[in-house]
Fold this protein.
Amino acid sequence: MTDLSYSNVNDNTPVLVGNSQLTDKRGVNGFNYLEILKEVSEEAILDCNASIKLNEHIDTVAVIRFVADTPHRDSATSNLWGYPNMPRSLSNSLNIPAQNEIYTTTGGNSPQLALNELATRIKDNQIECALLAGGEALDTFVGRLKEGLEVNWEDDPGGRPELIGKSLDGTNDHEKLHGLFDPSSVYPLFANSLRSANRQTVSEHMQDTGRLFEEFSRVASKNEYAWFPIHRSAEEIAEVRPENRMIGFPYTKYMNSIMRVNQSCAMIMMSAKKARELGIPKSKWIFMYSGACLNDIWNVSDRVDYHSSPAIKACTDSVFDLANTSINHIDFIDLYSCFPSAVQIAMKELSLDANDPRGLTITGGLPYFGGPGNAYVMNSVATLMDKLRLQPGKFGLATANGWYITKHGAGIFSSKPFEGEWNQVAETSHIQNAIDTADKPNFTETPQGDCSIETYTITHSRNGPDKGIVIGRLKNGTRFIANTERDTPTLEYMCNEDMLNAFGTVSSDGKRNIFKPNL
């Protein structure tokens, strides 16, 4: 690339010019929520290599919502949340006179949502220079609580930030009543549906999943920022053992995203005009060639099926169209990987093979690299930035996922200068309307009678199988959600036998729907 190509970059084109990642393994002595953002933000600012002090030029600070600040979450962490305006707290800690303070809603799609928003505002000349930061300090926080240590993490600088994103809960009351809330209880439902669609036995599905995630583990083992830099074999990942207990059938512990981490990431985005003004070397510039966000049908109980994602397909198609490229011309890929089913459904929608020589992750994925709450995709984009800086002209794709394969994002990035007018955030309202209005299965909250299992999971505690969650169909095709009775023989039977399409009866116990298999 010559400098002439950069001279063709319009002044209001957004460019990513700095990033940093941080992993803090000091346990109870680690950073608090504000400190972990401050530390990584300082490094991201330095990474820009600006010839002029950057802090006073940042007019916007955006922060990805922390897990402990999830609305309506009943937990010790949320009850102790003490940062009502984290963007301002962060600005104050860095001596940044930001006029704009942005905070996202809950969801792993939030980093791409924020990048889209910041880039659009730069393109529209509403802002010039933004800091985006996100992460978690849950390992230190939870560790201190467990050891009875003081946790007075709080700062109230006044004001309230602007919220972006859809704040609706991920599940409705009926779904929550039957256990559809914790992701570890929901993603296994997708897993068994995928197994059904692929006509696999439990053993075949587990072997495939183990092999898939072994490669993620291999990448994490070489990543200096990984929470678990350990290469685990496919057998280690798939085999149930005391150190790798079953969490939600068919997923073992090593197949689950890990949120109890201390990890953070920050990046700087600004206009090309500002980057020139601040003397930021062209070798630092990374361009977002396209970005998009879309939602699948919101409630899990209303999905057309549990082995596909129209929103992932439409979202990625949109970014490829805008960037005038295809999956075949992408050099680096990071698929959102909270659970294997999230990866496998994305692979299906992108027509990717598990043995793709490019790999499907550049970080190692959320179970091995670490899953810093809603902010993980910041790490995947930052890692893309580093790779693209070293290989000029290459392209990278990062996908994002919030709730339960519900909220999606995708972005294409490159070190190749973007020429011409930048208008690269997809307008997807018409696509969203088509997804939302698709024909849905009939659903009842009060099922009664003979039925069969569409998909299911058995959740486990440390003591063994705990509860069965069944999504089933009545004889007329109407869908329902139910639990099983909590008797150990039934739960163990449903773990040991393939229950897909198995018959039984469903009725209400006065509170929940109860499915009884025909044993």
